[in-house]
Structures are given as C-alpha cells and as structure tokens.
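Lab channel / #folding
Pinned by the channel admin:
"Please post every new chain as: sequence first, then the structure tokens as a reply. Keep commentary short and put observations after the output so the thread stays searchable."

First post following the new format, from NK:
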Amino acid sequence: MVAQKGRDMLVKVNGGSGYVTVAGLRARKVSFNAQAVDVTDAESSGRWRELLGGAGVQRASISGGGIFKDQSSDATLRTAFFAGTILTLQLVIPAFGTLEGPFQVTALDYSGRHDGEVQFEMALESAGALTFTVL
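Reply from TO:
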C-alpha cells in the first residue's frame, strides 16, 4: 500500500442537506476502543486473565483541529454542541474506508494569538451504532 496524504482524511457532518466537509481542519484523528469484560475466576488456567468475547462497550472518538473559517460546518458543530444534539458524521480514511454514524460534540475550543489566526479544536464521541464501508 502506498502512503496516503493526511489532508485526504476527511471529517464530514450532515447539516440536514447532505454532508459538508468540516472546514479548516489541519489535523484529524480517530480512535476505536472496546471495553474488556474480565471473567477470570479461581478455576482460570494458570491464573491467566480470561475475557468474555463480544461483551463490553465499543466506541469511537474523532478529534481534530485547524483554522476557524466560519463556514456552515462550523455553525453546525457549534449549534450541536450548545444544544447537546447528536449529529450524523462521516469519516473518510483514504484507501481504507468510510465510517458513518451518530456522534456528539463533546468539546469545542477556540484560541488565537494577537499575531495569528483563530484556531479551533473539536472532540466527538460516538453515540450509537456505526457502519464501516470498505473503499
């Protein structure tokens, strides 16, 4: 597999009239996590931990940051954060696949220096079942 450009990893938000790429992102990250359920007991072989397959909670986190551009995607994220609403997001990972499903905006930060641009950072947490489509 050939190396992929980071800028081709896209975070898209559905603002009601289709998906719009989140504007101004310079960095983006997705993390997948699964909670392990420990079922180790006195009869476990050699005192090795045993886990219950298929149990526990799965989740995905998306984070990113970049330059604040005051686009429709910025307004959609800001409105969803203050209202506590769940958004439908799509994450495109080049040469890998597309992740899609409900997410909640859990953090939204804005910062700026007197001699620079306004920047933002966002954090999103999965809020339901996600689908993955292989590219």
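NK: The first helix runs from residue 72 to 83.
TO: also worth noting, The two ends are 13 Å apart (CA to CA).
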